Amino acid sequence: MNRLLMIISMGLAFSLPAQAAMYKWVDDKGKVHYGDTIPPEYAKQGNAQLDKSGVVVKKTNAALTPEQIKARDEAEAKEKADKAAAAEQQRRDKALLATYTDFKEIDLALQRNLGQVDVQIKSNELRIKSIQGRLDGLKKLKAGFVQREKTVPPDINIDLKKTEEEMGRFRGNIANLEKEKESMRSRFGADKVRFRELKGLPSEAVATPAPAPIATPTPPVAPVKPVVPAPTPVASPAKK
Q1: DSSP one-letter string for 88-111
Q2: Which of the 8 DSSP states describes residue 176?
Q3: What gap in Å lies between CA 52 and CA 56, rounded to an integer?
Q4: Which residues share a beta bridge with 24?
Q5: Closest CA to 199 of 121, 134, 109, 105
Q6: In what order do the strands lie in the sheet with 32-35?
Q7: SS3 content of the chain, % helix, strand, coil (to 5)
Q8: Does the predicted model carry a pTM greater than 0.70?
Q9: Does residue 174 sit in helix, strand or coil?
Q10: In this predicted model, what pLDDT tens digit does every residue of 56-104 receive, in sequence order?
Q11: What span, in angstroms and rounded, lies between the C-alpha atoms of 117 and 125?
Q12: What's CA 73's distance to the chain center, in Å?
């Protein structure tokens, strides 16, 4: 008998409909709606699933618009870049403190590096001087043919073009090296400022130019009249 009642109870339990879920959503006008199903047009606007007591058991956020997706991606990219920059700055700070013990050492390191670049510039200048002599010779040779109204041999024009291109490359090297020096000064200057900050040292004092002395007006001096010597008398000839 007990077994029969158990079977009947289980059958009734499975035959009863399950408790339907209740949802809460907001329409385009901001009005709140409740129901056991969400209309398709509001499915992407976000909703909340409630239990029989009205307590939220699950919340679904509204689908992001293309603008919101773009803004989210940009914010995530910026946050990632900021973290990478902070990590790089921390690495540089650690290397800075490990490399130098005094900010004056940074000045010495700068001078050493500038000196190495100056050696490269000097080398390029010597090459330019050598090329200039060859270039002047080719131009003179070409001018001789032109003056004699003769056809300039093709190999002379070819050599001229190659020599001018070679000259341009070495001049470009010097220009790039000068830019490297400026970049080096800026980089070492920033390292020097950062080193002071990390060490808690005061900022380097900037020399203030002394004020120019105030000019005192000089009283006018009366002009001195030139002294004209008296004419020397000329002796008259003696009468005979």
Answers
A1: HHHHHHHHHHHH-SSHHHHHHHHH
A2: H
A3: 10
A4: 34, 48
A5: 105
A6: 32-35, 22-26, 47-50, 56-60
A7: 60, 10, 35
A8: no
A9: helix
A10: 878 887 777 788 788 989 999 999 999 999 999 999 999 999 999 998 9
A11: 12
A12: 23
Residues in the chain: 240
140, 160, 162, 228 from 151: Cα distances, Å: 14, 15, 20, 78
Separation in Å, CA 177 to CA 93, 106, 183: 27, 20, 10
Query: Phi and psi (nearest 5°) for 59?
Result: -125, 130
User: For 225, which DSSP code?
Assistant: P
Q: How many CB atoms lie within 10 A of CB 25?
A: 19
Return the amino acid letter for 162.
K
From first CA to last CA, the distance across the chain in angstroms is 198
Exposed e or buried b for every residue in 56-67, given b needs 16+ CB within 10 A? eeeeeeeeeeee
Among 154, 168, 159, 169, which Cα is nearest to 136's? Answer: 159
94-113 pLDDT, tens digit each: 999 999 999 899 999 999 99
Q: What is the DSSP string of 125-161?
A: HHHHHHHHHHHHHHHHHHHHHHHTT-PPPHHHHHHHH
At which residue do the structure tokens 């020096």 appear? 181
Instruction: Give the pairing of strands 56-60 and 22-26.
Output: unpaired
Is 141 buried (19+), middle (13-18) or exposed (0-12) by CB count in 10 A? middle
Partners of 25 in the β-ladder: 33, 47
